[in-house]
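User:
Note these tokens:
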Amino acid sequence: MKNLFTKILFLIWGVTNAQCITNGTLNSTCQGDGYNSSSCVQGWQASHGSPSVFGTVNANTWAWLWSHSNIGEGIFTNYNFVAGRTYQISFRVRTSTNVSNPNNTVLNSTANVRAVSGLTTTTSTTIPGALSGGQLVWQNTIGSNINNWSTVNISYTPSQNNTQLCFYPLMTANSGSNGRAQIQMEVDDITITPPVTSVFHFEDANNNMKTDFCLGESIFLDGTASFGENQYYLDVWRRPIGSTGAFQWQTQLGGNGWTQGQLGTLNLTSIFNGQGYSFVAGYEYQIKVATSSSPCVGWVPTTHEFRVLNSDASSNFTFNSFCAPDGTITVTVTASDTSAGLNHWWGLIETSIPNSTTDPNSSQVGATQSGNTTTFTGLSKDKNYYIKHGVYNSCVAWRESRTALPKTASWSGYTTNFTINASNVGNNVSVTAIANSNPVFVNHHWSISYAPNGNTSGNNPVPGNPIVCCNSSSATFNTNLIINEWYYIKHGIWNDCAEWGETRKAFRIVVQKLSTNGTPNYVVETKDVKEVSIENLNKKSDNTIIEQLSPNPTTKGSTCSFTTDSKNVDEVIIMDLLGKTSSVKFSIKDSNTITFSLNDSFTKGIYVIKVVKKDNTVSTKKLIIE
């Protein structure tokens, strides 16, 4: 059907195609009556009378026409005017009379241009009946153009089809009653620019208009709506689907892109396959078409695009769950098939059944998402979800995959650890626990319990102290706490990403030494003998273990040594497990070694050696005296 329709179009091309006007300059090879002789003024004839050739033959000639008493002369040429099309018509005109003082009746006579059909060449001066039909293109009174050449430009859209264009003057008044007057009309340099349009669309073999085609499908270009062309140009450009870059040139129709005739309907797939070029999937193609009516109308270009899509696709996908800064679960999903032109449908589905992807009572959470990858936020471990992913396009019927999501999501830097500081030690012991930082929001739970001998497995809360929950990253306990008693602080965290996690840390407050005024100084001693100095000492621990303390074990009265930066040592303290401290004299053996002696007052037991440094850090080491 496509091929037959194309052939019919070419058969009627000679009838419907708009053409260039012939000899619009009215060039003549003779003087006098040149319009009743086809050899003098090519393409033009006398519609009535004997129109004259004025000017220089073979150089610059024009038509001279007269009229009076409803008779006269006119010239015409054959030209196909199609209703509804717009033509640009231009010509030069000059009018005059044969009397020096024409009256208004004469001056109101008209110069006329009319589109008609049915004129034949005749020398009769009678106004042809055909001029009473057709359609008036232009009309002006003789007085408007008298004795002066002027250029007329008209945009003319006929309401009916006509096949001829006629120029003629018309004086209906009797010449004898008006001083034997007649009117004259001179015409030259006539041009007609025909309407040439470049109109096309794409369709399949069943005449369905479309811009998405499947791989292997025949692609037709329907240019039957174009008008006025006697040749057309066509070439092909492309770029990857989804790209915003420039289209890249691929090939052209024939040797130079130009083809004679009207555009009609073309099987692009067949034509370009015959030229060794194929349309492949994954690309958006731009077809550039220009139509022309040579030699009077240059090309009129139009471009349109279509896509070639794959006919197969996968709905599989991967996902990654992680904890967002607000403490909720975020899920990023990524399609396995990222073929260009494939549409993706993503839905987050909440269900009441764990790990279910078919629960009929499930419901979609939030809006549907699209694209090769997308992200869902605000999920909670307390709910059940699955991801539904569908793919489709005009070549791929809907396909989908579903995957249940895990209940929890981890994050880098997860910690339940905390530090303990003490203040107001004396009659009232107060400790503050401060959580180590998490990179995401977490809820906090704090409580304090007794820890006999540092054991944190019990659950015996210290009375008078509150349980602190849930937004505070620190907690202070200051009721019923005493020196040298073991307690533990329990710190739990949780959020929408993770279940409860906790750290229990045993500690006690012990005396470190007496200040110069006799006031005791205290430290927080944790079970792993890592302390933070407090109150008057106001020095911080670097939790560094002293290297190479020897001999260890040792005996009272012995001299011990340890390796450290000796020039930075400010004080050496020995503390027993009850918190009793003694400052001992030390000696600098060399730049890396400190020595000290144990007098007879030290009994057998376990001690902690504390080295207080000038940079306000404290190093520790366990020492056993046998």
Remarks:
- Residues 1-18, 528-543 have pLDDT under 50 and may be disordered.
